[in-house]
């Protein structure tokens, strides 16, 4: 976009010491996919969150003080330290993609306390249509101060990102570059211009990238849809918390879009559920439960019109949690007895909260059922406890499965680390017919796969791969579609091949085999990126 302004200059002595010092190119030496690499990546993500926090302080402070004011010293020094630490091998890139922040290709998962900061930066970047900020080692104190002053003095409503970039160059600011938000282009073959709907798989270009791009576009749409639904859950939960009113229209529209995508490409939508953020646990959890419920109901044979109602009901199944204080919900430690009482009341409180909200003049039974029954369990071993005979509705039974699966596979603020999807499924299968409806659970396993989407596996070739789609061949359900992510030595490979594990070679044997399941949570390995940015990168390389 702009000419490169990166020059190799020695780092000034007086600049702050890095917090995390390591040999200059240590990170390049550590094999991708290795345990050490994961730890390093984790550290980078933590530093990335600190960078976002300090950038936010810098921007906020610059709105009040002059660029030379001592009030700016702290955020500027902290940012310089972070950049020097992280930019050893390559510049630090903070990216915004579909309202999610990334450091390079790593998703920056923020906790509840960091949410406000992340949202503030996301809004600031969106206002300028900035898709990425690149900080390199050449950046100095004066550059950060000047940049922040510029950033807050220009109005994104009547200036563009190009104007901002020109000003950056004009003022001699070095070490900071901006990237535009990327509009993904669908590559189209001759004669198919404008035809981007489903069923246009034939529009493959001469190099065969066309249908892949179409797939990517669908995934990007799905991610957008996901962000929109998560947003509307946030707004509505907040409204309920504050006793305000809310409309379900927006949520319903967003759900409808997701259902359209689901019918076309179930795996792409389910892949989104791996985008589990620590932070917006409740919002993401609600969206995930909704997606999983829709997928399961779709397999059960629900008519399309009813899927939307179920999706909406699922989206608000935990509405009762809006009556629980945030301090309790976000408690890092163990719950007290009182906390548990409040938690156990959330299904009943949910029905009350929903019935109080405007926009539902007539509380649909399905919504009430979703909230009331989702922790009851098939054998009534859960809560609330009832003194009258009860039959759990189909909605309630679907919800119980989707809710448990997502809750166990996600990390949440008040509970332990997440469990690997395959372990969760095994645990759930051990309670088939007790906690869960046996037939529905079977269908659910078909839907996420015996080795669920998002699982990390090792192939016979010693390559690591991520499960991206359950097997289509019913006789070989333990042979899903995977994407290879490392070479046999554990070095990460970009755009690794997609393998259908049911494919056989000339000898009649399967070409590839899974030799073991790897607990991605044990390795703190975030497989979500293989459903998101990798695809975006692919498009970028074939503009
Ligand atoms: Fe719940
Ligand atoms: Fe839940």
Write the layout of secondary structure elements.
Blueprint: H1 26-29, H2 35-64, H3 73-86, E1 92-97, E2 100-103, E3 106-107, H4 115-127, E4 130-135, H5 141-153, H6 161-170, E5 176-180, H7 210-241, H8 249-264, H9 266-271, H10 281-300, H11 304-315, H12 326-329, H13 337-344, H14 346-356, H15 365-373, H16 394-409, H17 421-430, H18 438-448, E6 456-459, E7 464-469, E8 481-484, E9 498-500, E10 514-518, H19 533-541
Helix pairs in contact: 2-3, 2-4, 2-5, 7-8, 7-10, 7-19, 8-10, 8-11, 10-11, 10-16, 10-18, 11-15, 14-15, 15-16, 16-17
Characterization of the model:
The chain has 543 residues and is of the alpha+beta class. Helices cover 46% and strands 8% of the residues. The protein has helices at residues 26-29, 35-64, 73-86, 115-127, 141-153, 161-170, 210-241, 249-264, 266-271, 281-300, 304-315, 326-329, 337-344, 346-356, 365-373, 394-409, 421-430, 438-448, 533-541; strands spanning 92-97, 100-103, 106-107, 130-135, 176-180, 456-459, 464-469, 481-484, 498-500, 514-518. Strands 3-2-1-4-5 form a five-stranded antiparallel sheet. A five-stranded antiparallel sheet has the order 9-8-7-6-10. Strand 1 and strand 2 (100-103) form a beta hairpin. The longest helix has 32 residues, at 210-241. The two termini are 14 Å apart. The structure holds fe (ii) ion (2 copies).
Average pLDDT metric: 76
Tell me the Rg in angstroms: 25 Å
Strand order of the largest sheet: 3-2-1-4-5
Q: What portion of the residues fall into strands of 2 or more residues?
A: 5-15%
Series of secondary-structure elements, N-terminal to C-terminal: HHHEEEHEHHEHHHHHHHHHHHHEEEEEH
Identify every distinct bound molecule in the structure, by name, code or SMILES: fe (ii) ion
What is the CA-CA span between the terminal residues?
14 Å
Helix fraction, binned, reads 40-55%
**Largest β-sheet summary:** 5 strands, antiparallel
Overall geometric form: globular
What structural class do helix, strand and pairing data support?
alpha+beta
Low-pLDDT stretches: 1-30, 183-209, 533-543
User: How many E-type strands?
Assistant: 10
* Helical segment count: 19
